[in-house]
Amino acid sequence: MSRSQPDGLIRLPDQRRERSRLEWRIGDSGDPASLVEDFLADQGLPVRDLAALPARGGKPAPEATLFVSAAAGAQLAGGAPGRPSPVPAVPDVAVVVWEPGFEGGSPTAVRAPAGDSSSRPWRLGPWQDSWTPAEHAEAVAWVRAAIADGEVYQVNLVGHASAAYLGDPTGPLRRVAALPGARYGQLLRGAGWAIGCASPETLVEVGGGGRVVTRPIKGTRPATATGRAQLLRSAKERAEHVMIVDLERHDLARLARTGSVRVEELYAVRRWCDLWQAESVISAQLAHGTGLAALLRAVCPGGSVTGAPKLAALAQIAALEPAGRGASMGALGRVRPAGLDLGLTIRTVAVDAERVHLWAGGGITWGSDPAAEVAEAAAKAAPLRAALEPGGQPGVLLNTAVRSTSDRSNPS
Question: Which end of the chain is more exposed for a tag (fewer CB within 10 A), N or C?
Fold first, then answer.
């Protein structure tokens, strides 16, 4: 673990000034949730009682970027952490506190212009996948067998791919963050690592008065009229989605005032790049005295990227996935005086000094078809790979993978 003052003034593209930073890795001492809460409280952010947050922040105050990896989330939940991260340069927890007084935008959102501002040519080598399509399909079959045996109801399986690169990764990461539908399009950087996130999914949001919201996404089809109709009528996708809604309701209920948990919207179809996805909105009122540490323990890792029951699903993930989830399937967002907003790090890319890494997967139920699950993961990864290509533009997709799921006669 490291707590440090920055070595001089750090200027990012939006001219933020870093005040201080905390980094923690699996194997370091201390409980990461408590360390984050204590660190932010010491920096003047009101994270001890999120139910008492003001409607507005008032006078200028520091804001912070918070990142929590999937492995750290699994540890907080008491579950199996999975295989080691393929990008160990990225910490499992990172908190960056920014100086107050900078107006005009989210301190975590560094949105990309259309062009690549890199000063050095960007070159990307061939992608190396953590498993073959056949191995991925076999893992799906193993999950279906575990469901048949009553061990789990659903498991989210995620694959990893990486490629060597030359040049400055800043421009490609900005293109990732600018992909259409990226509600949490943002960058985070440290010594020898960076994360670019294009996530559309809210892990947890807390606003004034202690209202807490999560927006799980489950269910994917190509963004065509046919794809939308398939998503709406698919019994498999709806069952998968409702299972996760129930799990997220349970997670929020651990912290909520009695009777306050509500499903405000169920199975709404939204668009991310060239994909339709199903999203629900669940809210509650936090019980008095609920701090950030308790919130992180309740919601991490996100149910939509684990499965149900959560601990049993984490055990399956640890046994079946060939590579650690690294920067993906965790949390990334901002903590402000008047609230916090953390996205789930799906559709996320990480770089170290030599390679660029990405992850993609999907939820497996008894109704899953192995070939369709492999194609769905490829469709989710395609926009990220396209944005990372030299000369790539936000929203330009690799259509081969997307087309592979578009006209299946079996919508599940």
Answer: N
C-alpha 284: how far from chain center: 21
Map residue 65 onto helix, strand or coil.
Answer: strand
Say how far apart CA 343 and CA 332 lie, in whole Å: 5
Q: Any idea which residues carry the catalytic annotation?
A: 201, 218
Contact (Cβ atoms closer than 8 angstroms) between residue 292 and residue 38: no
Mean pLDDT of 319-330: 98
pTM attached to this predicted model: 0.88
- Reported as a pLDDT band with limits 50, 70 and 90, residue 54 is confident
Is 204 strand, coil or helix? strand
Supply the angle between the helices 292-299 and 70-77 in degrees, to the nearest 10: 100
Question: Is 15 a residue whose pLDDT tops 90?
Answer: no
**Position of tokens 């996935």?**
321
Fold of domain 2-403:
Anthranilate synthase (3.60.120)
Distance CA 18, CA 204 (A): 24
Report the interhelical angle of 70-77 vs 32-42 (nearest 10°): 110
Polymer length of the chain: 412
Provide the residue ranges of all domains of the chain, joining segments of one domain with +: 2-403
Query: How confident is the model over 261-312, as pLDDT tens digits?
Result: 999 999 999 999 999 999 999 999 999 999 999 999 999 999 999 999 999 9
> CA dihedral in degrees (374, 376, 381, 385; nearest 10)?
90
- Mean pLDDT across the chain: 88
Structure tokens at 115: 């062009």
Q: Which contacts (CB < 8 Å, 24+ apart) does range 12-16 have?
A: 12/110, 12/187, 12/189, 13/110, 14/102, 14/105, 14/107, 14/110, 15/102, 16/98, 16/99, 16/102, 16/107
User: What is the greatest pairwise CA distance in the chain?
Assistant: 59
**Nearest alpha carbon to residue 97 among 49, 48, 56, 36:** 36
